Fold:
Amino acid sequence: MKLIIGGVLLAAMAAALWARGRYVVVTVEGTSMAPTLSDGDRVLVRRLRIDQVSTGDVVVLEPPLTPVELGPGGPDGRQWNIKRAVALPGDPVPPGIDDSVTRVPPGALVVLGDNADSVDSRQRGFFDADRLLGVALRRLGGPPL
Structure:
């Protein structure tokens, strides 16, 4: 019986470690994604690479500005943005982003907030795909995004 209980506990710990490496919970700060997300909402984010992201996904990533320009980061020292992916590598560049290129360069993406007052690719240009945390799946306690 002790062996069974020990096995179940070990499996539960392994599953928790796997989930922690694959998923993270992020708290929304600000109104850039209103009305989809509100200040204080908590969202479940699945860690993904750029080749696993689709246009229209709500993504969490670091902005292209330096930390000095952004101010203090979160508990991990990093500053995160939550935005909607509107163009991925190789896609046509949407109007008003960068008139010097016609396609999104490799390793970059274009993101916009759902709120028209959002600070996003319209002001900051391309976001670096290497700074992508992942895709927001759902608001905790709410429907899928």
In short: Confidence is low (pLDDT under 50) at residues 14-19. The helical segments are 2-22, 67-70, 121-124. The beta strands are 23-27, 42-47, 58-61, 81-87, 108-112, 127-128, 132-139. Residues 2-22 form the longest helix (21 residues).
